[in-house]
Amino acid sequence: MISNYKFLSKIGEGTYGVVYKANAPDRLVGGAQFVAIKKVRMDENQEGVPVTTLREVGVLRLLCQHENIVRLLQIIPDSPNLWLVFDFMDYDLKQYMNAHYPHGMPDEQIKACVQQILKGVAFCHSHLVLHRDLKPQNVLIDKRNGQVKLADFGLARAFQASQKVFTNEVVTLWYRAPEILLGQKEYTAAVDMWSIGCIFAELVTHEPLFPGKSEIDQLFKIFRCLGTPSPYDWPSVNTLPNYLPNFPRWTATDLKSVLPRMHDNAVRLLARMLALWPDHRLKAQAALQDEYFDSMREQSPGRNCCEGEPPSASTPTDLITVSASTECQGSEQGDSDHQTVGRSKLRKLAQNSASTGM
Asked: Pfam families, per this entry (predicted)?
């Protein structure tokens, strides 16, 4: 019951609800002193909950045993509200940088942070899930031990073998991959890798790498830095809906000149994360093997970031594209986050979480 928790303060608010910091009895959450509780805002006009909530619950039930993914501890249907109980983390990455490193993080801390983000994302991708909204605000940090966890899976999607067109209204603008900005409707795990690259650079400078004011401004900021793509270096880019043949022609800038604080091996890794052509963009598991992380492996081998059942050999993550929504009771309406699903489905999930100890 939600009454078992002692609410302490409101720590966030968004489109779909309010997040509180709370105390909880040890028996409910395995000894955690604090938890974060999201109160889901129900649709007043429909008998249901936002589809983003169902998505987040479903994805976290699949992934939340990984050390770099926030745990969903409990689901509490308490009409007219729905409450989701999560690990409490002290900061998101943006808050952490503002509080402790206003001029950029030290190199070794950047390395540890990026490595943990990649581990979490590699685990998602190994289970055929895209996050689709990676940004500093969705990366959480425990100040006690520096542990990083990915959060906010409301836009996450499971890869599916049957392919349909997918919306391009994903990922906060500054971290949005160029293929999405250019209107590509079928895309891969490369969109998450682009976002990680943008976060990587921001950890160094404490400034967003591509702070666009609009989609076209975002594209032009990317092109000024990385060069305007052509069919010679990005096959079929000229067939994408938002590509214009009269785009200004910029040549690529040396990333080292943009990020002079970065060590050479870090710049090389970043460049592979920010490849304009998605097929040339580094994958998360490959990035973890990069020489940039050699010192981290020497300090501690760590755990395999892709523990658990691997994806089917017939559906490798580098070949499959994301599919349209099939979660809204068979809806063919695409990826609208304003759709709702029946509360009975969430009630079932809550019962399952109680019986399995989630």
From this structure: Pkinase
